[in-house]
Write the structure tokens for this entry.
Amino acid sequence: MDGDTYFYALAAIGLILLIPYFIIRDYKRGRKVSSIFTSISMPVILLFIALGEVLKPVLSQASMLHYNQIFFLGLVSFIVVPLVLLFFFTGKKEYKKWGDSKEYKYAWLYKVRYLLVGGVGALFLGALYRFYQIYVYLF
């Protein structure tokens, strides 16, 4: 094992300790479950990436391919699909806020809101393309 593996092992241990802390902290602050889910999804992804980097020198290449396939399917089914569904279910309520200029902290954001939504849409399409490339590589 090299120095990077120890770094990823420390990162994984730190994330294992921090993720429950973040969940409990947000729950005590009275945040919604959907808000807690969206804020905790990135640390969970980072945890599995760190675990994969720790397991890389230990497991064979075939075992790592299975780990990557399972990680990809778990990521898509337990994080990406719920986040996309959450976006579409809250989209109607948020669309009403987009039309109200008083909802914006800065007036110039109201003027460029469609440009910002277009940018987010382009990022979403780019992410879908990256997921397709990962799928082709793994399967």
Remarks:
- The chain has five helices and no strands.
- Helices lie at 3-28, 33-55, 61-98, 107-111, 113-138.
- The longest helix spans residues 61-98.
